[in-house]
Amino acid sequence: MSLVYVYLALMVCLIPFCKSDQDTLNNEFCALAMSVTDMCTANGYVSNLKPDITHHPSTIEPDTTQQAPSPCPIGFEEVYRGTIMLCLKLIYLSNYGTTWSAARDYCLGIDADLVSIQSQLEQYAVQDFIDSSGVSIYHHWIGLNDQVSEGVYVWANGTATSYTHWGGNRPGGVDGDDCVVMRNRSEDFGWSDYLCSARFLTFICEI
User: N or C: lower Cβ tally within 10 Å for the chain?
Assistant: First the structure.
């Protein structure tokens, strides 16, 4: 409650004393001031004469909370699906496209590799990433290939595959179709083997 309110309450309470005995009021002012709270409360003038001593800071304290650093390097996107997290970067070459080997060289040049997919959750995560990038109408080079031994597919980083998502009638078993793309959304993002020298507009790097 403001000090102004306290002052007005004092004046209201002291009016009867001013009218009845001005000299007495002057002599006993301090005593009346000390007991005014009780008197005013008893006469119903005011219920609480305590001043407002709430602390109001003049400035807003800055928020020093820091966001956790991203687990992915700059330029790579965090992609979550279920319990897994991938660091992915999609490259879109609008004019000419690129071969599988050139795509992989690009990924290696940024300390990454063509994406490998080892579970259905990872497949869904990559699909979500492609959808969010707005290029789901294209085919995308991924790391799978059988260049070393026909029919034995491994990922670009040399690891064996424990999961596949082949599209209809794939792999075709044609000698020379040694590199794999993830097909577009209309084909359920199924995998398909192609000539490694074929050119596709997009590919996905993973770190």
Answer: N
